[in-house]
Amino acid sequence: MSSLSLSKLPPKSSFYSHSSSSSSSSSSSPVFKSKFIWRFPPPKFDNLPSCISKQSSTIDIQPLNIDDELIKRQELAILIYDLGLHLNVSFTCIYTGVVYMHRFFMLHPFQQCLKESVAAACLFLACKVNEMPRPLNEFTRHLCQLINQVHNNSEDFLSTSSSITTVGNITPEVLSNYNQQIIDYENMLLSTLGFCLNVEQPYMIITRTSQTLSIPKEIAQKACEIATKSIFFTHFTMKYTTNLIACFALYLAIKSSQIIIPDNQDGSQWFHLLNEEFTEKLLQELADEYQLICMEKSSKKSQERFEQIRQQTVKTIFLSTSTKKNFIFHRKSIVNNSNQDQANCEQSNSTTSLHDNEQHHYPIATTSGSVRSTTSSSSSI
Questions:
Q1: In the prediction, which pLDDT does 155 show?
Q2: Low complexity bias: where (predicted)?
């Protein structure tokens, strides 16, 4: 097998980050935090990089259909999950990796990237951020195994023009090329994210709200399933705040169960506990958007694979947030990780607030997250 070409990797000079102007600081303060906006207005989703035709002396990008672009995201989200499953990492790492992938492709076209390697780099970085690093060689071997499995069992799940060559054996030279490819994409990812690395999850919000409202556990688990599927199958994490995603998931779970949550004594409704600006109309709009995507804008293979994921994860996610303990996925079983007493579902270094245009719920996230090592530790494995 010949070594893999890295021709799709853009030059390092083209790496760029998405960030707003740095927050103002006084002249006496040499250190300040930058503000990053990782929520985009609706028009952005009609003009995603993969859906825009670009022509130059070096690049000729044929645009994707918007629905096809979303399906590619769904496939990579499931690939990240499967890779995390093989590597026995926490669902927090998987969730973080999926969000990184969504952020990356808000600014880069699929046509210009080796998408499976991007997915691996997203999870590779997410594991470091969540202090569960895995050897780079291990990442590469499991990624190749997954690509082989996908091509053998389901030709139409990932595109036939996979960026990873299907092989039976991996030579040291080829392994080194793959490793370098993931490292290069990790550097590109860091540049794109602007080192805004913390990611909030909706599960703790769902659990605490359910406990406050005395909602049955089965409905809370259903809400966790909806929240997870919304991250895997939609652009919600790039459109809406974590608070709103959690609220919408609870709203849809409650509505489908046909139970009634009484209004508060002051006349406010239950979802006002999360944000006084939320309305039933807004939550129903999200529910309609979510259901439309799940019914009409996702592949059958992705739906079938997510059903397996749902059976493996949702109950564990709910139990882990209830007990505030992290959890580890194994290929045949799921066990609690008793060595970690803090839930990674809460990112203490990240704070969010609503944008001035409140009705769209675009928060500005200010973070000080960092990674202790990005490439040096990886290359020495």
A1: 47
A2: 366-381
